[in-house]
Design brief:
- There is one protein chain.
- This protein is α+β, with helices and mostly antiparallel strands.
- The protein has a domain of 176 residues: NADH Oxidase (3-Layer(aba) Sandwich), CATH 3.40.109.
- Helix 4 packs antiparallel against helix 9 and helix 6 packs antiparallel against helix 7.
- Strands 1-2-4-3 form a 4-stranded antiparallel β-sheet, sandwiched between helices.
- It contains 10 helices and 4 strands.
- Bound molecules: flavin mononucleotide (FMN).
- The site of flavin mononucleotide has 11 residues, from strand 3.
């Protein structure tokens, strides 16, 4: 059964959901071919720790110089890439800046913000407005292999995405849409880093053209944008919470106030 036949869930997913329906929050084991086992999120202790992590996250500008273990960086990047994207086309990329000369050029492009030079890990989140044209075949082959799509549905999907993208391009909004995917990936990175005890500095204080030139993104066959720079490392300080406006000030019901 594929997505055209059943847009909700595959039989395997349903099987897993049924098996996972334990009220006590125990870990379940997935059946063969089903989605991987997952731990119930209905867990007060987890919720409290996750809430504390969100509340206590701060933007850091001071980092210890210690390198982050490479295996942890890889696992972290894998988690970053679990972030959702429009149509699952994954039209966003991360450039890890390692070469000292490239980093110096990025530093200059980013108004010489010190964390750009000093953090052990520096990432640029790149938005690819037409990136789906490059990723579609690979993504489709994964869907086909998993049985979620068949060939005719893949063809339909390609047409549908092409239609959406054309509309966005005609409205001059391709870049704006692509920036969303890349920014969501950066948000995942901030939280995945936090969960490891690492700190982050999200940045948009840069000259985008200079930054693109620094990482070779100006030469790209396709027009791309840099959504965000993210410095990551172990914290060297404890920035104070600048606070947030009260909920009533920033959350509305049904109507956005003029
Ligand atoms: C989109 C975005 C761009 C930002 N750009 C910069 C930046 O260029 N330099 C910087 O030091 N901080 C930057 N910040 C960090 C913000 O100043 C910070 O998130 C805000 O002051 C709230 O502090 P907190 O993150 O510690 O809660 C940026 C944050 C966001 C979300």
């Amino acid at each position: 059964m594929n997505e055209r036949a059943n847009h909700s869930e595959s039989p395997a997913a349903k099987e897993t959901a049924a098996a996972a329906g334990t009220a006590d929050g125990t870990v379940v084991t997935a059946t063969k071919g089903a989605a991987p086992a997952t731990e119930s999120m209905d867990d007060a202790a987890f919720r409290d720790r996750f809430a504390a992590m969100l509340r206590n996250r701060r933007s850091h500008r001071d980092f210890l110089p210690d390198a982050l273990p490479e295996d942890e960086v890889r696992e972290f990047l894998e988690l970053v890439m679990t972030s959702p994207s429009a149509f699952n086309m994954q039209a966003r990329a991360v450039v890890r800046i390692q070469d000292p000369d490239v980093r110096a050029a990025v530093h200059a492009a980013a108004r010489k913000q010190r964390q750009v030079l000093e953090a052990p890990l520096l990432l640029a989140f790149v938005a690819e407005p037409d990136g789906w044209e490059d990723t579609f075949d690979e993504v489709a082959s994964q869907y086909l292999a998993s049985g979620r799509w068949d060939d005719s549905f893949a063809a339909e999907k390609r047409d549908r995405i092409a239609g959406f993208q054309k509309q966005r391009r005609d409205l001059g909004r391709s870049r704006e849409y692509a920036l969303r995917d890349a920014t969501i990936a950066a948000s995942f990175a901030m939280l995945a880093a936090e969960a490891r005890g690492w700190a982050t500095s999200p940045m948009t204080g840069f000259d985008e053209e200079a930054l693109k030139a620094a990482i070779g993104a100006d030469d790209s066959a396709r027009d791309v944008s840099v959504a965000l720079l993210l410095a990551v490392g172990r914290p060297a300080g404890a920035p104070k919470d600048p606070g947030r406006l009260p909920l009533e000030r920033r959350v509305y019901v049904d109507e956005y106030p003029l």
